[in-house]
Write a structure and sequence with these properties.
Helix content: 25-40%
CATH topology of one domain: Rossmann fold
Number of helices: 22
CATH class of one domain: Alpha Beta
Number of strands: 36
Largest sheet: 6 strands, mixed
CATH architecture of one domain: 3-Layer(aba) Sandwich
């Protein structure tokens, strides 16, 4: 019989016990009164400050010179805007990122400032918040982020990120809130409100249509208006209208031929026009803008441009010149300055009673653990393999690339320097103590694997171990085409990649011979042990490896055999590896190193057979989920599929625990009995994962994305709408699960799916009316009961179906959800309301939202594919 399961591992308020004198009741009462008085005074002061914002802004604006106004609308350092001392206006400081305050950057360079006290609480990524389907988790996430940003003296925290997961390959999916516009919109509001309660401006990003990293600056997004309004704008609209967000960051990409930061339609017509946004629109770093269009079409603050002097920014001296010549009215500048000053006053930058914030507190760390707990999704649990029962386990095998992997300082601008990070392995050790034998392995596959990142000393700016890759137009390598970076010593030609991902290869079969790629890859390699390293290469084409300028290994041909070469290397020394490749197919460079990090197949399978429990921590890392580059495919890297399949054969009860921020193919899913999805869980991830595995916490997360069986099943790939030039959003409003339902494609796991260690029943659906009209709302109620033996939470999901519509609408659209905690035998009535907007689509004829007369079906369940109750009502104009 399974033990009882706690819903929360720890309370949010943490009390510490110490050997100190106990206060008297009077002292406690006095302290409580003082604390209450301080809180009341802070609230009163803030209300007074907010009431005077517009008056103070106009007073300052009327006294400023033209040059002082210009200083408000462009950066004067990497992350700050200059002060104006004669008005006592302090510097405005910004900081990445959405999962914790980034370490301190030098004032005028991208180098680390080298501070020792700039660590912050590393929160679970926003995918975890989305997977919780819980507005409380969004509030807690925002409260910690805002408080810590204030303590670090930041004025704008660059988050949350809210772009939608249109494509599984998108490098920044891990930063965002899933694929559904309604879910993201409902979670962004409490996140923003909580951040801004701490006297810090939230910065919702990236507005808009930033759905790929492939040529992120140049790609031209061209969705139709209905797709734009129904799918990609609602989350930003909610942040503006419901959360009153103080700032928004424009995206890198183009929109119908111009950068989104200077798009009249997106900024002036919609953001600042229809929605009434009165905050600051600021750029990302190094975007493709120009002075006139940016100024006239609503950009307020230019934060990064690749020029030598900040005076050369588009909104610096060039803007001043165009105002003086009369090309741009000064009133345009005034509006921008007014917005920046408004933000500064709203967050109390000139207020001595501004909140101070807190950082790295026990409470914040426990919140991080709680959010991670609530975001874990139990995908599969055949025969109730989970939770594991501690007394029955004496020998556990922990295996996989993420078992002891830390993720905080990677991924790009979302990196966080934390005081510690609990890996899954450490979490299991903390949970099991010294009485259980834990065997740890990293498995080697039969496929030649590239040199592991453990040996790669060179780093990309995102913090990921990486190789520099340069592409040339000629074999002599005199004409550079492009320069980028790549995670592994593994290369697949774009010609080969297009062949692999092509839905219809008829054109491929009739095409002429492919052009040759001329590439050079470089990395600094640092051996872990001194001794003989057996280099191995498998290549189709001409391959040459040089080490410290000496040619070591060459291979030419199309026979794809493995060539090897022994080389003596010294531990701790850094060697420059340079690969030259001429070909149009692929290569892999690997090695056998002394004291190898990896166990062979026979060893790890023998350990799996003899273990009481096997947990494979696989998935992705920030070598895969990362800013600046999309993934090439949806497969697990480094032959994980082979290793997982072998483990499942050796021990059918192997638990597969995925750590990833984007979808992956899982060809072994049917064979596995237990699959868990954990995301990047922050500094307390390992403890949170152990809580789930051993039943201290009952999993209640639900997938905020679809997990397709194949990349080819996804809309952008099927419709050939993923490239470096132009994205038409050909699937229209059918993003994510909507596409899979429309096309009748079965994914591996659906949107909204997630299991529990207990069971629930859903009964007694009722509608507040059979017909509504005009602006009337309708309320849907149902009874939910915990019918199992353990306490836990369930997420009720309400999908709406327009029975007969004049336009093509999704079969189901998420329009409501509620997370409910119940002890065994407990029942609760849950209410979800629908308004006219929920019934509406964007009508291109009237250029407005339209709810058509007719019948609507309410579908209530615990997942997209687990609808338990239905009811219908009519809407009358």
């Amino acid at each position: 019989m399974k033990k009882a399961v706690k819903y929360f591992s720890v309370p949010i308020v943490v009390f510490s016990l110490c050997a100190c004198e106990v206060s008297t009741n009077k002292e406690q009462t006095d302290d409580s009164m003082k604390s209450g008085t301080r809180a009341q005074n802070q609230f009163t002061n803030k209300q007074q400050r907010l009431a005077q914002v517009e008056e103070n802004v106009e007073s300052l604006l009327s006294q400023m010179t033209l040059e002082e106004k210009i200083s408000r609308v462009h950066a004067s350092g990497k992350f700050h805007v200059s002060a104006i001392e004669r008005f006592d206006i302090p510097e405005l400081w910004l900081s990445d990122g959405p999962h914790g305050v980034r370490h301190q950057i030098e004032k005028f360079s991208w180098d680390s400032a080298g501070w020792t006290d700039d660590d912050s609480t590393y929160l679970p990524h926003l995918t975890s918040v989305a997977a919780s389907w819980d507005v409380e988790m969004a509030t807690l996430h925002g409260s910690v982020l805002g408080s810590e940003a204030r303590h670090r003296k930041k004025d704008i925290i660059l988050g949350p990120g809210v772009n939608l997961a249109r494509l599984p390959l998108y490098g920044r999916n891990f930063e965002y809130m899933g694929e559904d516009p309604f879910l993201a919109a409902k979670l962004v509001v409490p996140e923003v409100i909580a951040i801004q309660k701490n006297d810090v401006a939230a910065n919702v990003k990236h507005y808009a249509l930033n759905t790929q990293e492939l040529n992120r600056i140049g790609v031209n997004a061209k969705p139709d208006e209905r797709t734009l309004r129904e799918v990609y704008l609602p989350v930003f609209e909610a942040a503006v209208k419901e959360a009153n967000v103080y700032s928004i960051m424009g995206a890198y990409n183009q929109y119908y031929g111009t950068n989104v930061n200077q798009s009249k339609h997106l900024v002036m017509d919609i953001l600042k026009g229809e929605w009434g946004f009165d905050g600051v629109l600021l750029t990302d770093w190094n975007v493709d803008i120009n002075t006139y269009d940016a100024a006239m079409n609503g950009l307020d603050l230019e934060m990064g441009t690749n020029v030598e002097s900040y005076d050369d920014y588009f909104l610096a001296q060039p803007l001043l010149k165009q105002i003086r010549t009369g090309k741009i009215p000064e009133a345009v500048l005034d509006d921008k300055v007014r917005r920046v000053l408004r933000l500064q006053h709203r967050i109390g930058m000139m207020d001595e009673s501004r909140l101070p914030g807190e950082r790295n507190t026990d409470e914040h760390r426990q919140i991080a653990r709680k959010i991670a707990n609530q975001g874990v999704v139990l995908l599969k649990n055949d025969n109730n393999i989970l939770p594991l029962v501690k007394p029955l386990i004496k020998n556990i095998l922990v295996i996989g690339p993420n078992a002891d992997k830390k993720h905080g300082q990677g991924g790009g601008s979302s990196e966080v320097k934390s005081a510690y990070e609990i890996t899954p392995l450490q979490g299991l050790k903390n949970a099991l103590g010294d009485d259980v034998r834990i065997t740890v392995m990293r498995a080697r596959s039969s496929v030649l694997a590239p040199i592991a990142s453990d040996y790669v000393n060179s780093r990309h700016w995102t913090g990921t171990p990486a190789w520099n890759i340069s592409t040339f137009s000629d074999q002599a390598r005199t004409q550079l085409i492009s320069e980028s970076w790549i995670v592994d010593a593994k290369y697949i030609s774009p010609n080969k990649m297009s062949e692999l991902t092509s839905i219809d290869d008829s054109a491929e079969k009739s095409s002429p011979s492919k052009a040759t790629d001329f590439i050079t890859m470089k990395a600094d390699i640092k051996p872990l042990q001194t001794g003989t390293h057996q280099l191995k290469v498998k290549a189709l084409g001409k391959f040459t490896l040089s080490v410290n300028g000496q040619k070591i290994l060459t291979h030419e041909g199309m026979n794809n055999v493995v060539r090897s070469h022994d080389i003596e290397l010294v531990a701790g020394e850094v060697y420059q590896f340079v690969i030259d490749y001429d070909g149009n197919d692929n290569f892999v460079l690997g090695w056998d190193a002394p004291g190898n990090l990896f166990s062979d197949e026979a060893s790890y399978l023998a350990a799996a057979k003899s273990a009481d429990a096997v947990v494979y921590f696989g998935g992705l890392s920030h070598g895969d989920d990362r800013e600046a580059i999309d993934r090439h495919d949806m497969k697990l890297p480094n032959a994980q599929d082979e290793i997982i399949t072998n483990l499942l054969s050796a021990n059918p009860n192997t638990i597969v625990f995925m750590v990833a921020g984007s979808a992956v193919e899982m060809p072994w899913a049917e064979k596995a009995k237990a699959i868990v999805w954990g995301w990047y869980g922050g500094m307390e991830a390992g403890n949170a994962f152990a809580d789930i595995l051993f039943g201290d916490i009952n999993p209640s997360g639900k997938m905020p994305i679809t997990l397709p069986a194949r990349l080819e099943d996804t809309a952008p790939i099927t419709l050939n709408d993923y490239n470096a030039t132009e994205s038409l959003y050909s699937e229209g409003v059918f993003i994510g699960y909507r596409w899979f339902e429309q096309q009748n494609i079965k994914p591996t796991f659906s949107f909204g799916h997630g299991l529990s260690y207990t069971q629930f029943s859903l009964t007694d659906i009722n509608l507040s009316a059979k017909e509504i009209s005009g602006e009337q709302e309708i309320t849907v109620t149902a009874m939910i009961k915990n019918t199992g033996k353990l306490a836990g939470a369930e997420v009720l999901q309400l999908y709406l179906h327009d029975v007969e519509s004049s336009v093509d609408r999704p079969v189901k659209e998420l329009k409501g959800f509620a997370k409910v905690y119940l002890v065994p035998g407990e029942s609760k009535q849950v209410s979800i309301s629908l308004n006219k907007r929920d019934l509406s689509f964007w009508d291109i004829d009237t250029n407005d939202w339209l709810a058509e007369t007719g019948e609507f079906e309410v579908l209530l369940g615990t997942a997209l594919t687990d609808i338990k109750l239905k009811a219908t009502f009519k809407y009358l104009q």
